[in-house]
Design goal:
Strand order of the largest sheet: 1-3-2-4-5
Order of helices and strands: EHEHEHEEH
Largest sheet: 5 strands, mixed
Low-confidence stretches: none
Radius of gyration: 13 Å
Number of helices: 4
CATH class: Alpha Beta
Helix content: 25-40%
Structural class: alpha/beta
CATH topology: Glutaredoxin
Number of domains: 1
Mean pLDDT: 96
């Protein structure tokens, strides 16, 4: 199941950018953060795919959603200019950003290659 994130949740579960200058992942398992808006049609197309992936990967991967309308400061902190945008955060190493509505097979490839998570 995907989980909604507020700025407070993000600072605790993903990255505390107020405290740290360098990237330091705060989570236990890799995660995907979907920056979206309710009015965004491509975002609506990606949402069921993310739910499927959440079910398929279970507790090996967290999938979070950030409403860019409600969390403007968080969106600005990551320079979100177009949606959907997804931030892929491995347990070790630097995060990577991807923009656009990616198909499921591309997301699965990124989950394996960048997040190092297998089903």
């Amino acid at each position: 199941m995907t989980t909604m994130l507020t700025k407070k949740d993000f600072l605790e579960k993903v990255f505390n950018f107020e405290k740290n200058k360098e990237w330091k992942f705060e989570g236990d398992v890799p995660c995907i953060i979907d920056f979206y808006a309710d009015w965004c049609q491509p975002c609506k197309m990606v949402a069921p795919i993310l739910e499927e992936l959440s079910d398929e990967y279970g507790d090996k991967l967290n999938i979070y959603k950030v409403d860019t309308e409600a969390e403007r400061e968080l969106s600005a902190a990551f320079g979100i200019r177009s949606i959907p945008s997804m931030l892929f955060c491995p347990a070790e190493g630097e995060p990577q950003m991807a923009a656009g509505a990616l198909p499921k097979h591309n997301l699965e490839q990124i989950i394996g290659d960048v997040l190092k998570v297998e089903k």
